[in-house]
Amino acid sequence: MTRARQDGRILILMGSLLFLLFGFACTFADPSRLTDFRALYYPARCILQHHDPYQTSEVKRIFLAEGGDRPTDNAMTLQIATQNNYPPTTLSFSVPFALLPWGPAQILWIATTFAALIFASYLIWCLGADYSPILSGVLLCILLANSGILINTGNAAGITISLCGIAVWCFLRERFIGAGILCLAVSLAIKPHDAGLVWLYFLLAGRVFRKRALQTLAATIAISLPAVLWVWRVSPNWMQELRFNLLAYSAHGGTNDPRFAAPGPKGVLDLQVVVSIFRDDPGFYNSVAYLICAAPLLVWAWVTLRSSSSRDRVWLALAAIAPLSLLPVYHRFYDAKLLMLTVPACAMLWVEGGRSGRLALPITFAGLLMTGDLPWLIFLNLGGRLHLLSPGYITSSPHPLLVSSVPLALLSMSLFYLWIYLRRDTVHPATGCR
Question: Which of 283, 256, 297, 5 is nearest to 128 (CA)?
């Protein structure tokens, strides 16, 4: 083992310890913890009792009967816990947790999130360590240290993105292929808007990767079909009910309202929050956001289809698509852990040097830092004192530049890696993870 690799592993260990400490601190300090896990747990409990998991009144009845409400809960927390906005495919993963009482279920969920994200980060470090162990360790240490909110909220993004990262390692190292297929299939079943474009890359990238993508699709259908049929039997109108729930979340004043003018502190990453500054109309800001993202996505797909899937091009393709995945539809800061897929490309360009290498590090570092939990919490805490937020910032909007900075940074990050992807014509061999 080289000294650089040893130091890189120490950095991953440091990030993991900070993740654990920050996660536990957030969890025990917040009486309304694990709100997003409740959004998975109680609809699953509902269908286990043969009730409609998309009917808010049914979920709320079970939620209250089992003591799910807490004195600190507000209307937003109650909506998240009882108005199900996940597809039926998610039940394939959430029902096993819902078979347990709340206490053991939340402990198992937290432990699974911790273990999955740390393990996935280590595997991604292995990929980046082929180029620069220390730089990869620094970037992933930053990502891990800023992931405590995943534990506080219990959002499924922690597990979903971790499984996606594990699958990437399996496919690129050509090891444990069956496990990689299963991991990516479960990731797609839980949150397809997080892992979907990564799966699309493997579908477009070439013969071997396309085979893995099709196997993953078959596995996703096999995992998800029983849950979909189960929901259809219990709730024949689930599609209309799910659509109603999604509209309720994204409507003006809803929990997932993407507008700049929406009440509450901003933690939204999609471009709608930027476009809505100019015109507060869903038809306008949704259409413009989709068009902005469609252009680089089409270029990326065209380049992927016509070029070889050499190892360096894989890193660049994933680095371009990871931040772009966060922009066209609703995402929050916990979904930005998908940026771990940019680390190998950044390490590769840094080692190669030149203008690309000098730009890759600050762009990637800024993306990871700006979507981190700690910088955002510090901003919310100090914003009022610095007059960036009004004294009642929970119900008012911060400065437009502050709100737009994160989505625009992600867009810049995606366009930078797409530019390198377009002009790349060299091939770099990769070695195994030692």
Answer: 5
Residue 183: both structure tokens together: 């991991």
**What DSSP element (H or E) covers 18?**
helix 3-29
pLDDT at 266 (0 to 100): 54
Amino acid identity of residue 396, one-letter, is S
Non-local (6+) Cβ contacts of 103 within 8 A are none
Q: Distance (Å, rounded) from C-alpha 10 to C-alpha 6?
A: 6
Helix axes 157-173 and 207-234, enclosed angle (nearest 10): 150
Helix (H, G, I), strand (E, B) or coil at 332: strand
CB of 384 within 8 A of CB of 247?
A: no
pLDDT at 1: 57
Please give the full DSSP string across 118-173, using - where no structure is assigned.
HHHHHHHHHHHHTT-HHHHHHHHHHHHHT-HHHHHH--THHHHHHHHHHHHHHHHH
Question: What's the structural domain count of the chain?
Answer: 1
In-domain check, residue 428: no
pLDDT digits (tens, 9 = 90+) for 146-202: 998 888 889 999 999 999 999 999 999 999 999 999 999 999 999 999 999 999 999
pLDDT computed for residue 319 by the predictor: 96
The domain in which residue 382 lies consists of 3-423
**Contact yes or no for 90/60 (Cβ under 8 A):** no
Contact (Cβ atoms closer than 8 angstroms) between residue 181 and residue 219 = yes
Question: In whole angstroms, what is the distance from residue 280 CA to residue 282 CA?
Answer: 7
Q: Is residue 322 part of a domain?
A: yes
Q: CA 141 → CA 18, 118, 192, 367, distances in Å? A: 9, 10, 26, 14
- Residue 298 has a CB neighbour count (10 Å cut-off) of 10
Burial class (CB in 10 A: 0-12, 13-18, 19+), 348: buried
Confidence of residue 370 (pLDDT cuts 50, 70, 90): confident
Domain assignment present for residue 432? The answer is no
Give the per-residue pLDDT at 427.
44
**Domain contains 207:** yes
